[in-house]
Design brief:
FAD/NAD(P)-binding domain; 9 helices; 4-stranded parallel sheet; alpha/beta; globular; 5-stranded parallel sheet
């Protein structure tokens, strides 16, 4: 039996597996001819972009719910090594190490948070990089009000003023408000750059700054953290900030396992893929999502986000089957780009284009952000194979739409 091995069950990996199952069904390939096997360290598909939210009750979806109805196998294991020459992947599973061979590989191991060697960060820092880490942070914050009064008890420091850091910071006043009945709270956003959201652009920055000011969020720009302990942190300039909570959101990189594939990588460690999601120069290997970089419109490279990971996964799944059976593959092209940034109680920011022109703000943008986070990026939950397979059609969704907009 031929095997399509999918590494990772995030936005790219899950949809690559479903897309492959859809293409096999379309071609009328008997179930006994090809095995699709998904390997992930977790038994669930995490809606990672929601990890900053206060309610994480619907963020982890059991893989069995989505994959079992369509006959896709899944294995909970840690990927340890990839040997593209031997077409083999070594994984560490509860039953021990195992070497998995493949006929086609889809690498979709995603990205991970950059964790610098700041003294005390590993022991005392929090993050929202994973579902488990996000749950840990929320439990910690909810319990702060039960601690004895002390400097920094109600202070949260967020390091990194990019997309993730801004969403984490603007949600914090609400989380602290629920933890402290007396309204005790302080939120500080730290970044080494001279401005908030340096990659977000000049059009959007005033909106973000307005939202931060509205939430009473302080900023320390041009600042670096030099040490962390349980009671606070020290900045490189010497300032000491008492804080019982530090959330690290500074920087992302592709899975280090991408380096096991002998191919070109960009500064983020992402593998270069063509429009069919094939890794350049490596036979029988496809990649999608945060671990891959593709010029989706011929000019701009994909961004580490579910906006690109989901279609990259769908096309990778379709094309890996087409390639296996010598059928025509479909190129992925995306001619639009939007960002929808949650800004907590203030609302949200919706931008369009690679220069991020402001399209709408406030409650209207918040409604579309909630629709994306709670509906648009979820797989079908009906348990019906036909619904799940249909959702993996190799197509690109149009930009999110809603009736009310605020003029830019």
């Amino acid at each position: 039996m031929a095997r399509i091995l999918v590494l990772g069950a995030g936005f790219a990996g899950l949809w690559a597996a479903v897309g492959a199952a859809r293409k096999l069904a379309e071609l009328g390939i008997a179930p006994g001819q090809v095995e699709i096997l998904v390997v992930d360290r977790n038994p669930y598909h995490g809606i990672r972009v929601r990890n900053y939210e206060p309610d994480l009750g619907n963020v982890a979806i059991a893989l069995a719910e989505v994959l079992d109805p369509i006959g896709v196998k899944h294995l909970v294991a840690e990927v340890e090594a990839i040997d593209a020459a031997k077409q083999q992947v070594v994984v560490g599973a509860p039953h021990g190490r195992e070497a998995l061979t493949y006929d086609r590989l889809v690498l979709a191991l995603g990205s991970e948070l950059l964790r610098p060697q700041v003294p005390g960060l590993a022991a005392h820092g929090f993050d929202v990089d994973t579902y488990a880490a996000a749950v840990r942070l929320n439990v910690h914050i909810a319990a702060l009000g039960t601690r004895p009064a002390s400097p920094g008890r109600s202070t949260v420091v967020v390091v990194g003023a990019g997309f993730t850091g801004i969403e984490v910071a603007t949600e914090m006043p609400g989380k602290l408000g629920r933890a402290f009945a007396n309204g005790e709270r302080r939120v500080i956003l730290i970044d080494p750059n001279p401005a908030v959201g340096t990659t977000i652009g000049d059009h959007a920055r005033p909106v973000i700054c307005d939202a931060l000011a509205s939430g009473g969020i302080e900023t320390r720009l041009g600042a670096k953290v030099s040490a962390v302990d349980a009671s606070g942190l020290v900045l490189a300039c010497g300032e000491i900030i008492p804080a019982h909570t530090l959330v690290w959101c500074a920087g992302m990189r592709a899975s280090p396992l991408a380096s096991a594939v002998p191919a070109a990588r960009d500064r983020l460690g992402r593998l270069a893929v063509d429009s069919f999601m094939r890794v350049a120069g490596v036979a029988n290997v496809f990649a999608a999502g945060d671990v891959a970089a593709s010029l989706v419109d011929g000019v701009h490279s994909t961004v580490m986000s579910c906006q690109f990971a989901r279609p990259m996964g769908r096309f990778a799944g379709h094309n890996v089957v087409a390639d296996l059976f010598a059928r025509p593959m479909l190129p992925l092209r995306i001619d639009w780009y939007v960002t929808v940034l949650d800004l907590g109680a203030w609302g949200a920011l919706y931008t369009v284009g690679w220069d991020r022109q402001v399209f709408s703000t406030g409650s209207e943008a918040k409604a579309i952000k909630q629709m994306i986070n709670q509906k648009r990026i979820y797989p079908p939950r009906s348990g019906r194979a036909e619904d799940i397979l249909a959702a993996a059609a190799p197509s690109v969704q149009p930009p999110p739409q809603y009736p009310a907009v605020i003029p830019a």
